[in-house]
Amino acid sequence: MTHNLAQDLEQCALPSALEAMGERWSFLILRGALSGIRHFEEFQSTLGIARNILANRLTRLVENGILVRQPMQCDRRKVEYRLTEKGEELAPVMVALRQWGERWGCAPSSCQVLADRRDGQPIRRIAIQAHDGRTLELADLIWLNPDEVKPLVRDMVQETAAA
């Protein structure tokens, strides 16, 4: 079966994902939110971003469902920004970008190391994995149309059991 690469690329989710995130400042705001920053002033002082740009980017992240803006419990006059489930699911993307930067010399040697809270060990490199956990290389990957994807054996077993 032949694939029309141009059509496949048009139907890719990457452009809309990039549109939702915006640009550099949005990624840095997300990094801050993933690190526990919640308040406008904290984002502003940590990032050194102009207030108007920060307000614009926070609004965009809220509109795209990545952050939620809500009143603080202790002082309802103040607001905080919290990650939504959609925002939390960007963590592997952010870690992968960071690891890429560390590997290719984009990070200072004094850069902090991301570690497992439980035992203090550095996390593994993010990798592309097959359904069975095998690490895949770029040459192992193909693009398929949704109707060409084979169901996993366990999915077929579950469907049979449910019938």
Layout of secondary structure:
Layout: H1 5-10, H2 14-21, H3 24-34, H4 40-47, H5 51-63, E1 67-71, E2 79-83, H6 85-88, H7 91-103, H8 153-162
Description:
The chain contains eight helices and two strands. By secondary structure, the protein is mainly alpha-helical. Strands 1-2 form a two-stranded antiparallel ribbon.
CATH homologous superfamily descriptor of one domain: Winged helix-like DNA-binding domain superfamily/Winged helix DNA-binding domain
The CATH topology of one domain corresponds to: Arc Repressor Mutant, subunit A
What is the string of helix and strand elements?
HHHHHEEHHH
Largest sheet: 2 strands, antiparallel
Q: What Rg, in angstroms, do the CA atoms define?
A: 20 Å
**Residues in β-strands, percent:** 5-15%
Spatially, the strands of the biggest sheet line up as 1-2
The number of helical runs is 8
End-to-end separation: 32 Å
Report the structural category: mainly alpha
